[in-house]
Amino acid sequence: MTDGSLAALVVLGAFHGLNPAMGWLFAVARGLQERSRTRVLEALPAIAAGHAASVGAVALLVTLTRSVVAAQAVALVGGVALVGFGLWRLLSRRHFRWVGMRLSLRQLVGWSFLMSSAHGAGLMLLPVITASGSGGGGLTGAHAHGMGHAAGSAVSAAVFVTGVHTLAMFVTAGIIALLVYDVLGLTVLRRAWLDLDRVWAVALVGAGAFALATA
Amino acid sequence: MPLWKPDPTFYASPRDAVSAPPEKLAYVAAFDPTSQGPDAVLVLDADPDSAAYGTVVGRTDLPHTGDELHHMGWNACSSALCPYAPHPHVERRYLVVPGLRSSRMYFVDVKKNPTAPEIAKILEPDELAKRAGYSRPHTVHCGPEGLYVASLGGANGPGGRSGSVGRVGDDGPGGIALLDHDSFDVLGRWEVDRGPQHLAYDAWWHIAHDVLVTSEWGTPSMIEDGVVGELLLGRKYGHALHFWDMRKRRHVQRVDLGDQHQMALELRPAHDPTKQYGFVNTVVSVEDLSSSIWVWHRENGSKDGPWTATKVITIPAEPASADALPPVIQPFGAVPPLVTDIDLSVDDRWLYVSCWGTGELKRYDVSDPFHPVEAGSVRIGGIVNRTPHPAAPDVPLSGGPQMVEVSRDGRRVYVTNSLYRSWDDQFYPDGVGAWMAKLDSSDAGFGFDPRFFPNGDDFGGLRVHQTRLQGGDASSDSYCYP
Fold first, then answer.
1. Ordered structural domains, chain B, with CATH
2. CB pair distance less than 8 Å for B480 and A29
3. What is the pLDDT of residues B320-343, one digit of tens each?
4. Which residues from A are below 8 Å from B176, CB to CB?
5. DSSP labels for B450-464?
6. pLDDT in tens, B369-380
7. Phi, psi (5° rounding) for residue B7?
8. Is B427 helix (H, G, I), strand (E, B) or coil?
9. What is the pTM of this model?
10. Cα of B18 to nearest chain A Cα, Å
11. If you measure CA to CA, which chain B residue comes closest to A192?
12. Measured between CB atoms, which of B12, B13, B480 is closest to A101?
């Protein structure tokens, strides 16, 4: 994994953490409802876990496919899918619809998984995963020999990507949640909540284009 | 077009919403009592600095007749900020305007030209019937994932089914239709399991607790030709509240207020999302003609125990000589208060109570919801009193305070005088007229604004029902954050 790829993973993690729709706002709401910072803090790992599951599933799919299919094919197909999904997100007015404030922590993991998946959070990492392997030796730097070995390194690569990304997402979301809960208050939403879903859609298209260009 | 920042009329919490700027326009649902001409959405100037203050400055006629406009709601509101399905970059732009009699729904764009609203879409009655199984759409609320439209009748009411009408009330059940808030298509019936619920009227929620509440009036055949004495004395109108699991869309509990308390109508839950109580009015007691206000709450104040309701206000009938009364209530020798609407200020402090029969608008301090304290009252209209407005002290008024709406900052209260066409004609048989008044409300007092009194011909022959204030009001928005 190159430094550039690592930085990209962290930046995308921070971007996902920044988006109120990805969960920090839900954590704050749970805390405000019971006037308890503990409620904010206990929600964050659940939200991160759901996000990790969503991102991890995509990462695993991509790395496993790459271990048996030419990297270029994965990048091309993935890139096209990504551009298409991003354009749909950009043009469609549909948004994630879930009903329910009073979720258990387990349900919150499920909510976060669905929210991240509906946004294509994992897809956005595709170019990082595909591009980083094209230099030398795959994501983990291991030279794969044989299918079993290849699959094993694919799994560890997926785990690594998911871990780095989710950590950045978790830290960002946590800082913002506590900042809003303790210092800024929710009035900040009116001023500062840019339509990140549109930025997000553009990022998806950009990621797809990047994957295609570097394939 | 989506916005880059949240719609400025969305507020995360009721605390924030109270600081919203004063409304400059008010939208009023108005209908032609003869059903010969079109109903209309009227625009009133509510800016005291404007030369046209207190007058009708816009009127959008509907393309059909006989809709009987009644209540209205918004396509989007503060609930768009709720954390589980956030989408605050939509615009509060369309008034959703159901025809209570025709079951036709209009979606009216008030953003393009606020004083000349344009009809953006019309939803025909058979869409509502076919997809949701309902008719007579009434209350519209903007939820985080769609529009909730509480409807009084089933799809196969007397109007829809050929042949004879069966047992009274079998043109139900009424219930909630869910609409897509982008396309305004009917998605379907909201209820998965309605339990014993059959009658419908209002619906609202404790959004942060995943609890939805509905109330009961009657099915179309029970109300459309006026109040039916036999049904009333037979205690057949609604008298219960229903509590629902909003996530599972299942009926959880029915709370009976007692069948002497006929017609449980307007639901005004606390705006504070940490609270689980709200107010509901019952129109008339068959024992003594009184009206009452109830608080629903969890038993023993627990967080998720069973629901119950406690009567906190009783408003008695006022003695009157029979010759001053219309035939429908002549035998009783008294005028019932007929509390037909209530409204709770956004800070959950003031409850306004419309006594449409006696012609009185009362204000209660409900800081302690279980012990309301009356803190102001004005008289206007009334079956017997016919109290004039201070702006026209020589003109006796028919009708009484009916739909009441409170501004987000709680300082202004708007009231109109029509209840429902056939009921207007029963209780005010010599003509209900048409008027709208505005009151100023503060700690110091509660009284009429003499500059705001559009009436009679100002409305072009239409009767006026619900008011919606530009940008939202006390009964339009719900909040996910305290």
1. 14-469 (2.130.10.10)
2. yes
3. 999 999 999 999 999 999 999 999
4. none
5. TT---BGGGGTT-EE
6. 999 999 999 999
7. -55, 130
8. helix
9. 0.94
10. 12
11. B5
12. B480
